[in-house]
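Problem 12. The chain below contains 352 residues. Write out its predicted structure in token notation.
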Amino acid sequence: MNLLENTVKSIKPLDEKARGEAKARLDQLTMPHWALGRLMDLATELAAMTGKNPPPVARKTIVTMAGDHGVTESGVSQYPSEVTVQMVHNFVNGGAGVNALAGLTGANVVVVDMGVNGDLSVLGDKIIHKKIGMGTKNIAKGPAMTRDEAIKSVEAGIEVAISLADTTDVFGAGEMGIGNTTPASAIVSAVTGEAPAKLTGRGTGIDEARLVEKIKVIEQTLETNKPDKTDGLDLLAKVGGYEIGGMAGVIIGAASLRKPVLVDGFISTAGAIVASLIAPAAKEYMIAAHESVEPGHQAMLGWLDKRAFLDMNMRLGEGSGAALAMCLVDAASNVLTKVATFQEAAVSTSDK
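Solution.
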């Protein structure tokens, strides 16, 4: 039995005892009942995910998976593929959006080369090297990768999650890859059955003419590859990306370790869809960080039955939304642990 099968089988249901204990305390806090709404919901979810009350959330890691896409040759992006290499260096140097936002909660940013079309060996141990290939093939002409490569990409993500487990309580799943809104749009169209024209956005800021061509490319991609919407590995292999598989693996690996995962935006949620198809139980460990302005993201969240915590008109990727939402994780933890109960504060309760 391979790593993927073993990991999927090891994912346990949420711990309802820990959830109940957290809820019991929250019910008695010195405020009107459930007055902090979704922060209190999040606190109970964190307890159920981790199996502990209070849940451990202090140590945070954003895993930014990087990979290139052959479909960029079809003109779907505003930027050339070499930007992926340049941005990996920017992450390492601490100059990206995700670095600035991760600093709010002291989260570490760990970059993984899943399939960047460039030599990143000069970065040594400053990144994690899991390269499956030098970018995927052009999905408009055929599959992105083989099924074996899809398995390898997911297993690489699992290995990353396991390797970081001893220093991480909460994971964030992010990505970098020029052209990757195209495979993400293909994934959501495949699983929902909705037309690419309804789900496809401007990605890096393409103009109207290029958006029309991008939609045509996605339509051609789905017609050419005919991905099986019930098979996560088939979906990933035919229309996905190495970094999308890597994020799916991080989510599955984290779930097997009872560690929450903040799913960033549009492309990260494509990884979450792949993860949920491969390991349905992993979905319970996902927290939707924010709602992207990409039009397909709401359909993704609906398919996953998730509601995002933030709606900030963001579309950066990188794990930036997950990093920002980690502030809410800390807030939920503080509500659970630092607000006094009526009994602790010697405050009279309601007489109703």
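Discussion. The first strand starts at residue 60 and ends at 67. Students who got a different answer should revisit the alignment rule from Section 12.3.
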